[in-house]
Amino acid sequence: MLTLWGRRSSFNVQKVAWLLGELGLPHRHIEAGGAHGGLDTPEFRRMNPHRKVPVIEEDGHVVWESHAILRYLAARHGAPRFWNDDPRIRSEADRWIDWSATSLQPDFLNGVFWGWYRTPEAQRDLAAVNRMIANCDGYMALLNEVLATRPFLGGDELSLADIPAGTALYRWFTLEIPRAPAPHVEAWYARLQDRPAYRSAVMVPYGELRGRLAF
């Protein structure tokens, strides 16, 4: 059976858990990292020398890094919906995955979520946080334009394209921060909330992370 390591409140673990739910893959989930610890054990370090989650193991094969795991699961278990043999079609998801990793996630997760929510109030650099919020409003405006013509980033149905950016929406819309209107993004978020796998994997309370720079 496939095994996933990582704490449920981890943004990167949630991406993997969401896809596992969409694929209906039986698996066991071992809480690791944060208050659960376990990342410094010799056993875990043999799986991932970087000592970070998520990590999966299936039939003796270990994969780490969330987007590498998404691609692995899609290729092995998700064809044709989540993995198309045509590289031209597959590149649609790849583009959104890489954009999320290089644009949205650094400014939102590292800039806004860490800079505002996970940083104690007395230590916050509000000017920097506000710049990151403005950047994220720009990303949401871009997504809003794309989603004006389609229900999901990849087209008419959920695909791998939606998962990295879609995982960010729960925190984006529940943080107590100002946000510019983005009605098509809000409609996309509503569609994602209708999915049991999204609600189970992504809509996880994150209060344990407030004001905690180390965990």
Automatic annotation (TrEMBL):
Span of domain GST N-terminal: 1-81
Domain GST C-terminal residues, every copy: 86-215
PROSITE patterns: GST_CTER, GST_NTER
Protein's recorded name: Glutathione S-transferase family protein
Pfam families the record matches: GST_C_2 (PF13410), GST_N_3 (PF13417)
Keyword terms: Transferase
SUPFAM superfamilies: GST C-terminal domain-like, Thioredoxin-like
Gene3D superfamilies: 1.20.1050.10, Glutaredoxin
Membrane spanning residue stretches: none
Gene Ontology molecular functions: transferase activity
Coiled coil: none
Record-stated family: Belongs to the GST superfamily.
